[in-house]
């Protein structure tokens, strides 16, 4: 799912604020997961699907599993680029690969892999991805 130059297709910019850091001015490890969550939400929005609209249609996306590798620290006031791509697409789930890098140096700081399940909001049981959303993700998979 990577572009020919190895870059993941969707990118979301994040600035590191004081609230994101520990006492030493280093990004607290769990905040990388939050940055990746925001990027997945924005990637969905770019495809025309707001989380709020999906919830109104009785659909939610929930994280089934998460894996993160911390490579180098981000610091207060850094600007980060969170790159995201869907690398696997199943009936009721998808797998994202994500990389957080320093925007200026392009240095990778954190890598993540997330399996996200589509569930019904009313009972939290698996629900097939809507056909139009599946098609949008499929086009991304085929174009890479």
From TrEMBL:
<dbReference type="InterPro" id="IPR014166">
    <property type="entry name" value="Tol-Pal_acyl-CoA_thioesterase"/>
</dbReference>
<dbReference type="InterPro" id="IPR050563">
    <property type="entry name" value="4-hydroxybenzoyl-CoA_TE"/>
</dbReference>
<keyword id="KW-0378">Hydrolase</keyword>
<comment type="similarity">
    <text>Belongs to the 4-hydroxybenzoyl-CoA thioesterase family.</text>
</comment>
<dbReference type="GO" id="GO:0047617">
    <property type="term" value="F:fatty acyl-CoA hydrolase activity"/>
</dbReference>
<protein>
    <submittedName>
        <fullName>4-hydroxybenzoyl-CoA thioesterase</fullName>
    </submittedName>
</protein>
<dbReference type="Pfam" id="PF13279">
    <property type="entry name" value="4HBT_2"/>
</dbReference>
<dbReference type="InterPro" id="IPR029069">
    <property type="entry name" value="HotDog_dom_sf"/>
</dbReference>
<dbReference type="InterPro" id="IPR006684">
    <property type="entry name" value="YbgC/YbaW"/>
</dbReference>
